[in-house]
Amino acid sequence: MTGGHPWAGPARSEEDLDPGNAGRRRAVRIIARPDHPARTGDTMKIGIIGAGNIGGNLTRRLTSLGHEVSVANSRGPQTLTALAEETGATPVTVAEAARGAEIVVVTIPLKNVPDLPAGLFDEAADGFVVIDTGNYYPQQRDGRIAAIEDEGLTESRWTEGHLGHPVVKAFNGTYAEDILARPLPAGDPGRMALPVAGDDDAAKKAVRALIDELGFDSVDAGGLDDSWRQQPETPVYGLRAGVEAVTKALAEASPERKESFRG
User: Fold this and answer.
1) Does pLDDT of 25 surpass 60?
2) For the chain, how far is it from start to end, CA to CA, in angstroms?
3) Predicted model pTM
4) C-alpha pair distances (Å), 82 with each of 17, 31, 88
5) Tell me, what DSSP letter sits at residue 236?
6) How far apart are CA 216 and CA 126, in angstroms?
7) Is the pLDDT confidence value at 2 over 70?
8) Are 159 and 132 in contact (CB under 8 A)?
9) CB 124: neighbour CB atoms within 10 A?
């Protein structure tokens, strides 16, 4: 997929549906080039729950930057052997994914969030941050969620309630292939920017620093109740552009949910 809507129809596994470039099965390899961003920060322990398009490519990129990554999916660590061998990440169960993690990425279908195990974050590092990459696809996958459609909760606010921990919304409208194919050094005029929403300024700062390390700029999209501005069918969703254009797209968003994203 090279453009258009980030949700591209049914995929073969549940995690593959959730990221911006759902349905894409071909792995994009990191291209070695002189301008590719390098390690800039301290090594962190990062847990990734969901090994589909976004989760898999974040695993590839973060391990290449030297971070210690544990990755889990719904089918068990035995199904992640190839990804582990490729990246050096540690395949674990979902219940183990957050153990010792400073950042936990939850990148699974929205409908599966309530099924995550209790005590998921009990052994996470002090001050850990949760990144939510999820989107609500009522017609294509998730079914109707009344709290989102009738009560007006943003998708990430609903997810936060089920997780029992504050989340930062990021990567939800990002093409999975871009995580590997489009990182650029800070200051490059072609560098893409990603919107980031959340209520905790320190958590947002940590996520934005990680995005910068991955080779992208970021734009503060406000609190979690403002995160409707980056949900599916908004101008910023799937936008491949820099800070100015992303800021403009966020400002132009409408809170009205389109029929195509109603259950």
Assistant:
1) no
2) 26
3) 0.87
4) 20, 19, 10
5) T
6) 27
7) no
8) yes
9) 21
